[in-house]
C-alpha cells in the first residue's frame, strides 16, 4: 500500500518511463481486486481495455451513464464484452434524465453545466470509487495543461484513492497506432470529427486543426467535467 510521499516518488521513479502495460501489471498486482477503471469508451480507454483483456479481464470497470451519452458510445459496451469478456458496469445518477430535467425546469447542461456534471458524473463516481483503493484513468499529458502535471501514480485527494494513469506519456498518434495494429473496437464518432466524446449535449465535432478538446463544452470556459482535476492534500499528494 502507498502511504507516504516517498512511496509515490519511488513508484513514479520506477514507472515514469514504463510501458502502459507494465504500469497496468503493477496496478493489478498491487490493488486487484480493489482496483477499478472509469471509462467513457474514448479511444484511449479502449486501448486500456484491450490491455486489461490480456492482463486481467476481471478488473472492475465502470462507465458513468449520465443518460446523455451518444448511442454509439453505449453500443461499445457490448462490443467490449464480446471481444474481451469485460463487463462494464453502468453507474447511474439517482434521477433519470426525465426526472432530473423536470426537477430543474429543463436541462441544466445549458445553464449550469458544472452542477449537471456534479450531479450526473461526480456524485455517482464518488459513490462507486468508495468501494475501491485505486482507479485507472486514460488521460494523456498532452491533452490539457492540467493533465500535463499528472504522475503515473498519484494520490487523488478529491475522491480518496490512488489514481493510475498508464497512458500519460502517449500521444494521440500512439493511441491510434495501437488501435489500428490491434484492431481495437472504437467509437465510430471518432471517424466523424469527434476526437473527444462526452455527453451529446456538450460535445460537437471539431474542425481540422482545432484542439482535440475544442468540441467539449464548446463556447464555454469549462473544459473538464471534474473527474480528472486532482486536488493536492498535504501528506501524500503528488
Ligand atoms: S457533460 Fe454535459 S450533459 Fe454530461 S453531465 Fe456534464 S453538463 Fe451534463
Characterize this entry briefly.
This protein is of the alpha/beta class. It has seven helices and six strands.
Describe the structure in your own words.
- This protein is an alpha/beta fold.
- 36% of the residues lie in helices and 10% in strands.
- The protein has a six-stranded mixed β-sheet with strand order 3-2-1-4-6-5, with helices on both faces.
- Strand 2, helix 4 (71-84) and strand 3 (88-91) form a beta-alpha-beta unit.
- The longest helix has 17 residues, at 113-129.
- The model is unreliable at 232-238 (pLDDT under 50).
- Bound molecules: iron/sulfur cluster (SF4).
- Iron/sulfur cluster binds at residues 66, 68, 109, 113, 116-117, 120-121, 198-199, 201-202, 225.
List descriptors.
36% helix, 6 strands, single chain, alpha/beta, binds iron/sulfur cluster, 238 residues, six-stranded mixed β-sheet, disordered C terminus, 7 helices
First and last CA, distance: 15 Å
How many DSSP E strands? 6
Strand order of the largest sheet: 3-2-1-4-6-5
**Weakly predicted, low-confidence segments:** 232-238
Q: What's the helix count?
A: 7
Oligomer: single chain
Broad shape: globular
Helix percentage range: 25-40%
Rg, rounded, reads 17 Å
Please, what is the average pLDDT? 90
Ions, cofactors and other ligands present here are: iron/sulfur cluster
Largest sheet: 6 strands, mixed
Which percent band covers the strand fraction? Answer: 5-15%
Q: Helix- and strand-based class?
A: alpha/beta
Amino acid at each position: 500500500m502507498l502511504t507516504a510521499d516517498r512511496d509515490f516518488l519511488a513508484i513514479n521513479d520506477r514507472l515514469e518511463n514504463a510501458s502502459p502495460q507494465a504500469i497496468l501489471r503493477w496496478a493489478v498486482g498491487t490493488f486487484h481486486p480493489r482496483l477499478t477503471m472509469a471509462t467513457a469508451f474514448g479511444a484511449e480507454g479502449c486501448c486500456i481495455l484491450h490491455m486489461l483483456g490480456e492482463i486481467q479481464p476481471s478488473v472492475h470497470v465502470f462507465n458513468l451513464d449520465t443518460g446523455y451519452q451518444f448511442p454509439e458510445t453505449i453500443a461499445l459496451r457490448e462490443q467490449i464484452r464480446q471481444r474481451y469478456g469485460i463487463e462494464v458496469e453502468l453507474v447511474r445518477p439517482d434521477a433519470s434524465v426525465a426526472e432530473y430535467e423536470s426537477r430543474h425546469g429543463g436541462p441544466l447542461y445549458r445553464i449550469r453545466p458544472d452542477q449537471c456534471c456534479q450531479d450526473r458524473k461526480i456524485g455517482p463516481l464518488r459513490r462507486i470509487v468508495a468501494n475501491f483503493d485505486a482507479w485507472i484513468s486514460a488521460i494523456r499529458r498532452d491533452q490539457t495543461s492540467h493533465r500535463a502535471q499528472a504522475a503515473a501514480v498519484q494520490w487523488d485527494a478529491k475522491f480518496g484513492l490512488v489514481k493510475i494513469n498508464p497512458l500519460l506519456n502517449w500521444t494521440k498518434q500512439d493511441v491510434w497506432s495501437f488501435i489500428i495494429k490491434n484492431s481495437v473496437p472504437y467509437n465510430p464518432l471518432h471517424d466523424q470529427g469527434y476526437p473527444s466524446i462526452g455527453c451529446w449535449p456538450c460535445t460537437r465535432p471539431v474542425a481540422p486543426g482545432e484542439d482535440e478538446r475544442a468540441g467539449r463544452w464548446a463556447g464555454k470556459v469549462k473544459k473538464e467535467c471534474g473527474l480528472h482535476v486532482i486536488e493536492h492534500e498535504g501528506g501524500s499528494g503528488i
